[in-house]
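Intended use. Records like the one below are meant for learning the mapping from a protein sequence to its folded structure. Do not use them to infer anything beyond what is encoded.
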Amino acid sequence: MNKVKAIFFDIDGTLVPLGSKGIPGEVSEAIATVRKNGVKVFISTGRHIEWVDNLGDTEFDGYVTVNGGICLLADRKTCIYCRPIDKADIDRLIPFSHTSRMPFVVVPAQGGIFINRIDDNVRYVAETLHIKHIDVKDIATAKDMEVVQLMAFGSAKEREESEVFKDVLKNCVATSWNPYFCDVIPRGSDKSVGIDKMLEYFGIPLSETMAFGDGGNDIGMLRHVAIGVAMGNAGNEVKEAADYVTTSDTDHGVVNAFRHFGLL
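Structure written out for the chain above:
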């Protein structure tokens, strides 16, 4: 096996078990150990940095956020890459949102995340992800903003029937890791793109990388890196995309994979 010099971690369902408030102690300690041994460790998440609040004191060398749309260094402020959604899509979404009952979360590049309406699905997801508050505003608020991601609530069937991706978000794609909503990102952008930008900055070859994930939005990065590790709690499609399947997020998954590949 080639030497691993960079590891990318999804958060929810990977580092942080769903419903939990933070990284298990043994996982945090294992990450600190591999980092001390010279391996760079990065977050690769669908969350905006504003919502990355469940990592405790665990230190990381950088953050690939909003599914590859923004890459930040360890200080969580220095941006080395940003890819916003096409403004024409946002302009079309504004009138659509006034006639549709579908809730949309809007994620501006600079922060200040908001939602246009709240329903039971939104409440359930907010509780599961421990999101304490989100402002409710009209989508028109985003007209002059750089929007890097949306979250469209409702089932896949409801989204298909609305034709929102056919008629409105024409330059976007949906990526999902939760049955209650999908992340909406610019076409051609995903976690693997953000990983490449981070590797370019640090001068690390793709051949010396590893990634951990459990959701549909992790498939691209698991296929892209040298060693893709799927959590035992991942769906079959995610496991099929990986090079190795470890145990679940609640059964020492990250630590067991580290041991399997000789990182501990």
